[in-house]
Design a protein that fits this description.
The strands form 2 sheets. Strands 3-4-5-6-7 form a 5-stranded antiparallel beta sheet. By secondary structure, it is of the alpha+beta class. The chain folds into 2 domains: 7-159, no CATH class; 170-275, no CATH class. The protein is elongated, with a radius of gyration of 23 Å. The longest helix is centred in the last third of the chain and has 26 residues, at 215-240. Strand 3 and strand 4 (115-120) form a beta hairpin. It is 46% helix and 11% strand. The chain has helices at residues 7-15, 36-40, 56-60, 63-73, 75-88, 145-159, 170-183, 192-203, 207-210, 215-240, 263-275, and strands spanning 21-23, 26-28, 107-112, 115-120, 125-129, 134-138, 141-143.
Length: 278
């Protein structure tokens, strides 16, 4: 695997062609629409903000060690973790790793060279813990704490069009949350079914074709359809507007201006505050 300086840019060149992203000796696959509900009901295992847990030990541990702790204690979290591995890394059950004395997915404990080893029964997956740090073993591939952090970013950049992993202060996070709340006030997001129907109505694709597309592609289709229709409506309004006032410029739905990621937020926030109650 090549050296990855910018994960977002690295993922883009594979995501564009719906190809899996190579990372170390594993491949990370984009999630297809047909697996949308399974993915969305399990992805939270990778998005827990452990630093908000009021325990210094939890704050100081890696996310990999944190996951180890919760999948040992909780069958629900364990199932979530395995589901994500199956969907994104195409891990499958392995009879050679199955101890028939215990149920599938049971955590089996052992020690090797003074290290604690936690095996997931029926899968060629285990996590080592030496008392300080953890290593995730998938087959013969060893993934360290930072590797898991990078894999989480890859999965999110692969599947979420609006994923943002920029470091920001708590105050800025609150401001961003406020902006999103105001911008989406009284808006009901379309369900997946509604999005698929909208695409079929616009371009004639069948549902069978769409469910085999990636989540990222389908969301991109929706954004393009909305942007294109809005652009046409605004242009028609400008062409027929009975006014001498200068109308605001209309940004093209595809060829966008080169502006900062948060420029719209800062320019819109004041006007939102004037028109909506917080």
């Amino acid at each position: 695997m090549e050296f990855v300086d910018n994960i977002e840019t690295y993922v883009e060149k594979y995501r564009t062609f719906d190809e899996p992203v190579p990372f170390k000796d594993v491949l990370i696959y984009p999630v297809k629409v047909k697996d949308y509900y399974r993915f969305m009901s399990n992805i939270d295992i990778l998005k827990i903000d452990k630093d908000k847990i009021p325990d210094v030990r939890v704050m100081q541990m890696s996310y990999l060690t944190f996951i180890l702790g919760i999948i040992i204690e909780s069958e629900e979290y364990r199932d979530m973790f395995i589901n994500i591995l199956e969907l994104c890394l195409h891990i499958t059950q392995d009879d050679e790793c199955y101890n028939q004395k215990f149920p599938y997915k049971e955590i089996l404990y052992g020690t090797i060279d003074n290290k604690e080893i936690y095996f997931i029964n029926g899968y060629d997956v285990n996590i080592e813990f030496d008392g300080k740090s953890s290593i995730l073993n998938i087959g013969t591939t060893r993934l360290y704490a930072q590797d898991l952090d990078d894999i989480i970013d890859i999965i999110c950049y692969q599947n979420f069009n609006d994923y943002d992993n920029d470091e920001m202060s708590e105050d800025f996070k609150k401001l961003l949350e406020e902006y999103c709340h105001l911008k989406n006030k009284n808006i009901k997001p379309p369900t997946l079914e509604e999005q698929l129907i909208a695409i079929m109505a616009q371009n004639g694709m069948t549902k069978r074709e769409l469910i085999d597309e990636t989540m990222y592609t389908v969301r991109g289709m929706i954004d393009s359809i909305v942007g294109c229709v809005d652009y046409q409506i605004q242009h028609n309004y400008r062409a027929n507007a009975m006014t001498d006032k200068k109308l605001p410029d209309i940004e093209h739905w595809l060829i966008k201006s080169n502006k900062g990621k948060y420029d719209d937020m800062f320019s819109d926030l004041d006007s939102f505050k004037k028109n909506f109650e917080l």
